């Protein structure tokens, strides 16, 4: 059953749908499906936690190996044969052989990457839903509102609850793209594709010194507008902006070329990935001029952040999995309000303690082959949440 209530504005309307409150067997069936999903999530959390520890330790060992082997180059303008195949460190200004062009807009720049970003003025749908119970039925009230915004992706208005009056074009007349220089150098050395991919600090290009490229295109600020009136755009109008990364030549408007620091393997006059004994790959690039120690410190910090982020994700997946698998106990008593709330709190506490203990135990197993003593300590620590939880349970009175 659906009821419609219009607010009087074509940009907003409310829809109310209702359905019969699910019975016990139906809720039990839904819970069973959730238990299966919980089991899959629970098992995946073990894989995530275990492999993350191996990855973290392998990366740390690779970085330590790299730090012990790296050779700082005295000059970036000479390629010395004695460094062939070795891990080298160098810093200098980026250079590319030719500027990157966008002939459609009469724009060029000496940079590693040039990105054209196209946005279209489109209708966007927002929905806000609330559920409530009335006369034994569950009713859902959804308010749909529509607004016009600049979007870089085509918004499919066919999926709108009400497309009439909010129709978007199905495609853009101008497409976004990113041009990448085929050859990027630091001094006499050419960067591998993997190193070039790391140059991604995009900055918006000012268009203030450019003229309007066509009669039907108007420049406004740092945008080119395909619009009759950029101040009052209509649905389907386009605006185009440009971004660059890795300035590789002196520019009167942008300044001098960007400097970067690279650690990679020297192969002839190319800088390519270095494969460590631990099985990792080292090809590092950072903006600015950094020492060897600063680069490896940043890499260790990045590895630590990634490790903790994945640990948190693994714990959360385990907590959610256990919660879904034990949800059936909540469903069995959900018609008793007080009992239901107590059971819910108990299940959450149970999931928290078990997820914490099993996460610590899995992490300790991941360390077992690398650092057995730490693995043992973490394994002992995994018992603490269970002991704490058990100590809070009041002992049974003697009969």
Please, could you describe this protein's structure?
By secondary structure, this protein is an alpha+beta fold. Among the domains are: 27-60 and 303-392, no CATH class; 97-248, no CATH class. The chain is built from seven helices and 20 strands. The strands form four sheets. Strands 1, 2, 7, 8, 9, 12, 13, 14 and 15 form a nine-stranded antiparallel beta sheet that branches. A hairpin with a 5-residue loop joins strand 1 (2-6) and strand 2 (12-20). Helix 3 packs antiparallel against helix 5 and helix 5 (337-367) runs antiparallel to helix 7. The chain crosses the membrane at residues 31-50, 312-333, 345-367, 373-389.
């Amino acid at each position: 059953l659906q009821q419609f209530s219009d607010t009087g504005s074509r940009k907003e309307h409310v829809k109310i749908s209702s359905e019969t409150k699910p019975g016990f067997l139906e809720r039990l069936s839904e819970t069973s499906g959730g238990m299966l999903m919980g089991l899959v999530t629970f098992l995946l959390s073990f894989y995530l936690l275990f492999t993350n520890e191996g990855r973290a330790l392998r990366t740390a060992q690779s970085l330590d190996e790299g730090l012990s082997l790296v050779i700082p180059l005295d000059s970036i303008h000479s390629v010395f044969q004695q460094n062939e195949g070795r891990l080298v460190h160098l810093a200098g200004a980026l250079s590319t052989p030719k500027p990157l062009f966008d002939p459609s807009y009469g724009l060029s720049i000496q940079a590693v990457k040039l990105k054209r970003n196209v946005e279209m003025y489109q209708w966007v749908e927002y929905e806000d839903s609330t559920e409530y119970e009335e006369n034994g039925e569950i009713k859902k009230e959804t308010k749909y509102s529509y607004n016009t915004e600049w979007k870089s992706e085509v918004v499919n208005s066919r999926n709108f609850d009400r497309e009439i009056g909010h129709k978007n074009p199905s495609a853009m007349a101008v497409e976004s793209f990113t041009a990448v220089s085929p050859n990027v150098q630091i001094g006499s050395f050419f960067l591998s594709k993997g190193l070039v991919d790391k140059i991604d600090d995009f900055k918006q290009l000012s268009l203030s010194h450019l003229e309007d490229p066509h009669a039907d295109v108007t420049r406004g600020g740092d945008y080119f507008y395909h619009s009759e009136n950029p101040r009052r755009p209509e649905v389907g109008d386009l605006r185009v902006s440009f971004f660059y990364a890795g300035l590789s030549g002196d520019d009167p408007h942008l300044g001098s070329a960007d400097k970067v620091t690279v650690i990679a393997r020297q192969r002839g006059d190319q800088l390519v990935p270095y494969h460590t004994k631990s099985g990792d790959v080292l090809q590092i690039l950072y903006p600015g001029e950094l020492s060897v120690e600063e680069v490896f410190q940043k890499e260790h910090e990045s590895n630590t952040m990634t490790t903790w982020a994945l640990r948190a994700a693994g714990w959360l997946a385990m907590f959610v999995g256990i919660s879904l698998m034990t949800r059936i106990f909540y469903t069995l008593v959900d018609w008793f309000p007080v009992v239901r709330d107590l059971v819910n709190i108990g299940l959450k506490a149970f999931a928290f303690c078990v997820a914490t203990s099993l996460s610590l135990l899995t992490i300790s197993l991941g360390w077992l082959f690398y650092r057995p003593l730490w693995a043992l300590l973490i394994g002992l620590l995994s018992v603490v949440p269970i002991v704490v939880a058990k100590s809070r349970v009041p002992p049974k009175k003697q009969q």
